[in-house]
Amino acid sequence: MGVNVNRNDAIGGLLVLLFSMLTVGLSLKMPLGTFRAAGPGLFPLCLGILLAMLSSIFTFGTMMRLHRDGKGGGKPLEIAGSAMPVIGFMAVIAFAAGFLEQLGYAPTAFIVVMALLQLLGWSYWRRNLAISLAASAVSHFIFVTWLQIPFPKGWLGL
Amino acid sequence: MLESLQQLAGGFGIATTVQNLSYCLAGAIVGTLIGVLPGIGPIAGIALLIPATYSLNPTSAIIMLAGIYYGAMYGGSTTSILLNVPGETASVITCIDGYRMAQKGRAGPALAICAIGSFIAGSIGLFGLVAFAPPLARAALAFGPAEYFSLMVFGFIVLSNVTGTSLLKSLMMALVGLIIGTIGLDPVKGEFRFTFGSMSLLSGIEFVAVAIGLFGIGEVLSNVEKPAALLEGKVLVPRLRELFPSLEDLRKSIKAILRGAGIGFGVGLVPGPAPVIATYASYMIEKRISKHPGEFGHGAIEGVAGPEAANNAACQAAFIPLFVLGIPFAPPTAILLGALLIHGVTPGPMMIAESPELFWGVIASMYIGNFILLLLNLPFVPLFANILRIPRRILLPLVVLFCITGMYSVNNSVFDIWVMLLFGGLGFMAGKGKFEGAPLLLGLVLGPRMEVAFRQSLMISHGDFSTFADRPISLAFLLATALFLVVPIFGLGLKRLGKGGSSKGPVPTK
């Protein structure tokens, strides 16, 4: 039970509280039944209520402590680096999920590694190309050829 | 007991034939490789390789598949330690201290202690298997839904005490996991819940997607967020003599290994995700009894040794209900049951009498397999530890590629990659607020079982909640739960009282 709080705690608590309220709302739309013969909504409803109680205690407790410590009180937000690589990485994974079936496994693996190497600021094109080609070839051998996992072949049949 | 030992000796005769020995070796090697690849755990590994055993006799086939099983369980720990990517649930707890050890340049001792701990626990597990299989299996049968439910509640509280700095945060995450676990088909009535018309959500949220997302992708995102200079930062790479545990490490670990083996074996007999509960329980106990609990979460070797031993012992014990009762209590043993049936062997009380060569041969092969794993993995420690020498700018894209690949291969589903991405983002954000991912994972895994146990208990008792307190085993678990809840709160209260008292003391002079 840590007593060191920061604004991230309060935001996190609020998000969990919202999630619990959403759960309660959606559970109430399902048949609840009784405890003797519970419907599909009863168990998630109980969990949602319990989570709402805990997150309320946590959020308000955190806010009270922040208020008590003054406007600038509490632990400061963790100093973040650049958000761009994070967004970039997520975008590349989303690209892989979106285009794996169309492009096939090996081309997707190549593009993913190449794009991520570029995102991390490595501007050596030849080296990136070599690493990406090697990574896609080795992973294709392990997963597709050896383990025979049925990856999509895509337009190029790779 | 003497008869069992004689039969075990016969089993060793069967397991040490050149043919069976080579299948055991092949299974252990393939299992380790499968476990090392993020995303492909023992379940997928066994399932993928069942067709490869069609041409073998039943004994050789099960020896090989069992080798894959415990090889994969060990291999999963390697990725947990080196990359913070758990191959399966039971390895989640290894991430906590194992990964911290790797970050401090102590990946070698962590990996070596995993191998040693697994071997010792496997040996103890084998002895337990031979000595206590029939009576313990009968005891496990005494568990009804109320006992299961109370046991799982106990598991949550134990875990919430273990992880993070805040009990409240951990409990909230566990509840979020339980709620996510209700997505899909209602386990009792078969109605859709929270699926929003999506076919992909009918079978619920894939556990592996959540695990890889929260831990693997979340960790990668935390790394890439760091300024370039930090990313370039020197990775602590051990020197050769630092690759193996010191005498001090071994001294610290041995008791944790023995305790972990005991816990793992006991919990392994209980239905449910035994290796998961066993690793969490072992970690909790090690932290509680440690003279330096503050080191846990920052690279305490006992935090790796105990849970790894518990994991291995639980895997061994899981074979008891499978062989003696014909009931698989965990997904990997369920797949092994399928393999047994494919090979014309029906496990159950009559199996020992009807197929003694298979039963005792497989039991003996487990011991040999554990020895092979030790021989295999100790020399490979330097190789695995040197993965950390790869610059992070290359390693991180490769980890992402393996996460995507491993994720797709579980269900051959692109949807799982989206889920992994979503939980990757969530893991990244949760990490900023110091919300732990492990309780969420346990909630997700235990959720459906917990709901079934809860609803069945109340159905049997006609909605009377006292059923949980009326049954002695259930009551014992609930009392233990209350104890685990009250002790930290009581401790915090005392701490605050102490602080309050000291604040009333004399004001220091300037």
Q: Would you give an account of this structure?
A:
The complex is a heterodimer of chains A (158) and B (510). Chain A is mostly helical and 158 residues long. Chain A has 2 domains: 7-68; 84-146, no CATH class. Chain A is 67% helix and 0% strand. Chain A contains 5 helices and no strands. Chain A has helices at 7-28, 42-68, 84-103, 105-119, 125-146. The mean pLDDT of chain A is 85. Chain B has helices at 2-15, 18-36, 42-49, 58-83, 92-103, 107-141, 145-162, 167-180, 207-225, 228-231, 247-268, 274-289, 302-317, 319-325, 331-342, 351-354, 356-385, 392-411, 414-432, 438-460, 467-470, 472-503, and strands at 184-185, 192-193. Helices cover 73% and strands 1% of the residues of chain B. Chain B has 22 helices and 2 strands. By secondary structure, chain B is an all-alpha fold. The longest helix of chain B has 35 residues, at 107-141. At the A-B interface, helix 1, helix 2, helix 3, helix 4 and helix 5 of A face helix 8, helix 9, helix 10, helix 18 and helix 19 of B.
Secondary structure: helix percent of chain A: 55-70%
From the alpha carbons, calculate the radius of gyration of chain A and give it in angstroms: 24 Å
Tell me the quaternary state: heterodimer
Structural category of chain A is mainly alpha
Q: Biggest interface and its residues per chain?
A: A-B, 72 and 69 residues
- The number of helical runs of chain A is 5
**How many discrete structural domains of chain A?**
2
* Span between termini of chain B: 75 Å
Number of strands of chain B: 2
- Determine Rg of chain B (CA atoms, Å): 23 Å
Number of helices of chain B: 22
Unreliable stretches of chain A (pLDDT < 50, length at least 5) are: none
Quick one: overall form of chain B?
Answer: globular
Strand order of the largest sheet of chain B: 1-2
User: Which stretches of chain B are poorly predicted, pLDDT < 50 over at least 5 residues?
Assistant: 501-510
**N-C termini distance of chain A:** 53 Å
Shape of chain A: flat
Structural class of chain B, by secondary structure, is mainly alpha
Percent of sequence in beta strands of chain B: under 5%
Mean pLDDT of chain A: 85
